[in-house]
Design a protein that fits this description.
The protein is an alpha+beta fold. The chain folds into two domains: 107 residues, no CATH class; 123 residues, Sandwich (Immunoglobulin-like), CATH 2.60.40.420. The strands form two sheets. A five-stranded mixed sheet has the order 3-2-1-5-8. A five-stranded mixed sheet has the order 4-10-9-6-7, covered by helices on one side. The longest helix is centred in the N-terminal third of the chain and has 33 residues. Bound molecules: copper (II) ion.
């Protein structure tokens, strides 16, 4: 019975590790990383995953060993212990060192992704001249591109619902805002997640290095229709992006008779 209990207990770490092992080949792992800083974010994730994984397996094995070693059928008297000072020092110091290691190893990546000072400065989109703004609201993503003078007021602002079109291979900076409650701008393929906070204008940047369409989802439970905040980020080669934007600008002034005029 003691042996069966031990083996059953050991199944927890074995099955736990096994599911992680087979996850990638079953498509249960991360979607492809296509942003310039995606690999850095993944590296941080794997550091923590290994730490947690090793700790998990070690503690489970110790627990199983204790079941095997100290399991008793007869209700014998428990032995009292007043603790072990050395052991307590070790289990305080080791997590402290590990936490400090995590804190220091993520600092540079965090600053590169989140701090305005380290946003890319050379491209055509910067923190001072962003591509536009993204508004989150219950339950909608609204992307607004400024007019040719950089204004976000007036009739020639381009507004798109649930679709964020951006150029490939260059830094894209935008301002994230919320009309009502907390939302979170999450593009798994970019390894980018940023809360949208009512009353705040939060600059965000990414650089997509592969063309395609990627899921944009809300990662903050924001109300009954949270699940409906499913948008797309369309990454187009730079010239196609420019052509798309020019066509959108032209369409703002279209009155539906242009083709008739061309035919005449
Ligand atoms: Cu939301």
């Amino acid at each position: 019975m003691r042996l069966i209990a031990t083996l059953l207990f050991l199944l927890v770490p074995i099955l736990g590790v096994w599911t992680f092992w087979i996850a990638p080949e079953h498509g249960w792992w991360f979607p492809k990383s296509v942003s310039s800083y995606g690999a850095d974010i993944d590296r941080l994730f794997y550091i923590i995953l290994w730490m947690v994984g090793i700790t998990f397996v070690a503690t489970e094995v110790i627990l199983a060993w204790c079941i095997f070693r100290y399991g008793r059928k007869d209700p014998s008297k428990a032995a009292f212990t007043h603790g072990n000072h050395t052991l307590e020092m070790v289990w305080t110091a080791v997590p402290a060192v590990l936490l400090l290691f995590i804190a220091f190893s993520q600092m540079k990546v965090w600053a590169d992704v989140k701090f305005g000072d380290s946003f890319p400065k050379d491209g055509r989109f910067t923190i001072d001249e962003p591509i536009g703004e993204v508004w989150a609201s219950q339950f909608d993503w609204r992307v607004r591109y400024p007019d040719e003078d950089g204004n976000l007021e007036g009739a020639d602002v381009i507004e798109k619902a649930f679709e964020f079109t951006v150029p490939l291979g260059e830094p894209v900076v935008f301002n994230l805002r919320s009309r009502d409650v907390l939302h979170s701008f999450f593009v798994p393929n970019f390894r980018l997640k940023q809360d949208a906070v009512p009353g705040m204008v939060i600059p965000v940047w990414f650089q997509a290095d592969e063309p395609g369409e990627y899921d944009l989802i809300c990662a903050e439970l924001c109300g009954w229709g949270h699940y409906k905040m499913a948008g797309r980020v369309r990454v187009l080669p730079a010239d196609e992006y420019d052509a798309w934007l020019a066509a959108e600008r032209e369409a703002l002034y279209a009155n539906g008779t242009e083709e008739l005029e061309e035919d005449e």
